[in-house]
Amino acid sequence: MISKNTVCLWYDGTALDAATFYAATFPDSAVMAVHRAPGDYPAGKQGDVLTVEFSVLGIPCLGLNGGPEVKHNQAFSFQVATDDQAETDRLWSAIVGNGGEEIACGWCKDKWGLSWQITPRALSAAITDPDRAAAKRAFDAMMGMVKIDIAAIEAARRG
Q1: What is the arrangement of strands in the sheet containing 30-36, beginning at the earlier edge strand?
Q2: pLDDT at residue number 1
Q3: Which pTM was predicted?
Q4: Which CATH entry fits the domain spanning 1-67: 1.20.1250.10, 3.20.20.60, 3.40.50.300, 3.10.180.10?
Q5: Does the domain made of 72-159 have the CATH classification 1.10.3720.10?
C-alpha cells in the first residue's frame, strides 16, 4: 500500500533497476512492489513495468516509468548523513562506480540522473560550529572537495 506521502521519481523505463540498486546499496531500503501497466501508454505497452514501490533509507518512493520527457536535476536530491569515512567512501563508490558521476562538495549523481549528497555528520557539525571562524575554515575546505574528506574537514575546523 502506498504511503500517505510518497516521493515519486520519474524514470525512462528503468525504475525497477534503480529501485533494486538503491535497495542493495542503502540500509533500510527495499523494493516492495512492482506494478505492470494494465494497458498501453505513451512510454510503454501493456504488461511493462509502470511503477515500482520502494524505500530508500526508510523514505517511501514510487518509481514511475514515464518515458524520456522528464529528467532528474539537482533541484531534488537525497541527502545521506554518513557516520564515518568508510561509510562515506562506500556509498560514494557505489553511486559513482555504478555509472554515476562526481559533482562537487559531496554531491554526486547516479546513472539514472538522480542527485545524492553524501554528507558526513562531521561536515554538518563543522559548518554549523558556533565558532564562526572554525565553521568558515571547514566550509572553505569543503568548497574545494568533490567527495568529502572528513580528516581534512576536521583539520580545517581546528585551524
Answers
A1: 7-11, 59-65, 49-56, 30-36
A2: 65
A3: 0.94
A4: 3.10.180.10
A5: no
